[in-house]
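Raw record, unedited: UPF0215 protein ACFQJC_14080
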Amino acid sequence: MKPGTRALGIAESYGGTEHAESTDSSILSTRDAASDDATQTDSGDAQQSTVCGAVVRADRVVDGLSFDRWTVGGDDATDALCRLWRELDREDVRYVLVSGIAPAWFNVVDLHRVAAETNRPVISVSFEASDGLEAVLTEQFSGPALDWRLERYRDAPPRQRLEVDGEEVFVRAVGCDDDTAARVVRAFTPEGGRPEPLRVARMAARAAHQFGGN
């Protein structure tokens, strides 16, 4: 891949739950660590997660940042992700990388809608083995809140295990085949197991969240 090829990485930060960076399991301890009513702040407002979109070249040059928020336990992650794309207005970005599929306590991302909105391949990367989310979602939600999450989750392509620099990651791809997704993830992971656009986005989201006092 050419050094100047650009990808947009999207990752979040909220509360003190750094593991809530959207691994595919979302891990139940995400909610436990944020307290039993994780979606509420002391003021009664829905807790917000800070999300960053980072444009990074394959040669590790950071080429743009944008920030937004989505709701912990809400249904607005897809909307916020699409807003980030529009606000950046970067036609030179070739790929969109998303940290996981269920950020901010199961605010499940519609990968197909993101691919349609951006007209780019969308690759979801998670970092822990998982038996899937259906049992967890069924335990934690009911009614319409469960129905849309299950529908969106089931509509996503299956995860593919990928070894990158001796690390194991799990990849879902919409808009490209699995071989292309693997090539993109490896090209944007110069060291360690985390693609550079996601590493930069996570770091920037954490700093912005801390600065914002949330």
